[in-house]
Amino acid sequence: MTFTDSDPSYATRAREIARTVLAIGAADNDRAGRFSTEAVRALGGEGLLGLLVPAAHGGAGAGPRPFVDVTAALAEADPSAALVFVMHSLGTTVIAAAPDPAQVVPLLRDIAAGSHLTTLAFSEAGSRSHFWAPVSKAESLNGSGVSITARKSWVTSAGFANSYVVSSLSPNAQGPTDSTLYLVPADSPGLSVAGAWDGMGLRANASSPMLLDGCVVPGHLRLTAEGAGFSAMLQTVLPLFNVGTAAVALGICRATVAATVTHLKTARFEHLGTTLGEALPNLRAQLATMQIKTDQLATLIDDTTARLERPDGLTMLRVLEVKAAAGDAAIEVTSLGMRTCGGAAFSRHTAIERYFRDAHAGAVMAPTSDVLRDFIGKSLLDIPLF
Ligand SMILES: Cc1cc2nc3c(=O)[nH]c(=O)nc-3n(C[C@H](O)[C@H](O)[C@H](O)COP(=O)(O)OP(=O)(O)OC[C@H]3O[C@@H](n4cnc5c(N)ncnc54)[C@H](O)[C@@H]3O)c2cc1C
Known about the structure:
By secondary structure, the protein is of the alpha+beta class. The protein contains twelve helices and nine strands. The protein has helices at about 10-30, 35-45, 65-75, 80-95, 100-110, 230-265, 275-280, 280-310, 315-345, 350-360, 360-365, 370-380, and strands at about 120, 140, 145-155, 165-170, 180-185, 190-195, 210-215, 270, 275. A four-stranded antiparallel β-sheet has the order 2-3-7-6, with no helix packed on it. A three-stranded mixed β-sheet has the order 1-4-5. Strands 8-9 form a two-stranded antiparallel ribbon. Strand 8 (about 270) and strand 9 form a beta hairpin. The chain is globular and about 80 Å long. Flavin-adenine dinucleotide binds near residues 119, 122, 129, 154 and 156. Flavin-adenine dinucleotide binds near residues 120, 129, 154, 202 and 371.
């Protein structure tokens, strides 16, 4: 798929997919814990799986802002599908930065054509949320690649992706961050999904554990230089991951505000002859707080995105702040939405209860809100992060 200036903007396409595909299936997919293959097909069909693929390989060659705008638009209708998009887009940036680009061109072309979904498999059961320190160690096959045995604890799109960007300590690693990133195709012998995904929220994205049992990865599918996995995770992945997951939170906040407005305008006290919103100033004040927190998050995401486009001395601080702030905002806004809409929200007459559950994932996805606060404190005090 090629892109021209007269094409609809990426965010416009995302809003159309959100309206015609995601919004229709989100509630049922959440209830059933069903991965939305329709969402992936629609994203591929509109060229959005190739958003971050360089234009030279048929992609859109887009930067952080379209990525953020698309993610937020998708999340407003279905946060699960938005996370699938985020993980795929990040996997794509790692693949596009491979040391031997010629080896990954066919793959990038497939991604740009919308026929290949990828994802990140970093977190391991042994090091939990400390994704930067895999405990698995690749074994050298003496010139013909490596063999990897690893217990990956959560992998979004597990069993649905066509490939996995996998971290593992290098064969000659000396320390916990001497890692390398590898591409493991879905049909690799030894790769399996190790359990069903039955999360509290973000239930429709198959974030299951996966096992690699002696998976052989040929040399040409090594995605970083030996030992350069740690810097790729921090420099290539972390900035876009943090702003991308913040955009998921923003979509959740916006959807919750919209659902709360609808409820306050339509639910009535018949004995008073008013709507809830007309009758109760405390509900209007809570709605106002939800709107303020949502707009504060949007502004911080906007500032972070601008600093990713034109890096300066504050870029890394904002990258750390934005995901921590987003985790807080999503929980606060959806909690207020639950309270404001009362029993109607609690008994699932609105979608707010789903957003409330989805909102709680952001703070525990690594780097977690706690870890981010520790990093921010350390960086303000000039203490090394690792
Ligand atoms: C929906 C969902 C999708 C996911 N998708 C992926 C994926 O696609 N790929 C992937 O690699 N991973 C994925 N993850 C995993 C995620 O990134 C984390 O690794 C995981 O949520 C950590 O859970 P844990 O129980 O192992 O946390 P633990 O490490 O056990 O943390 C427990 C608590 O300790 C706190 N804590 C931990 N370390 C510190 C510290 N140094 N300082 C202060 N507090 C600390 C944490 O904040 C947390 O509150 C996903 C997770 C979820 C929920």
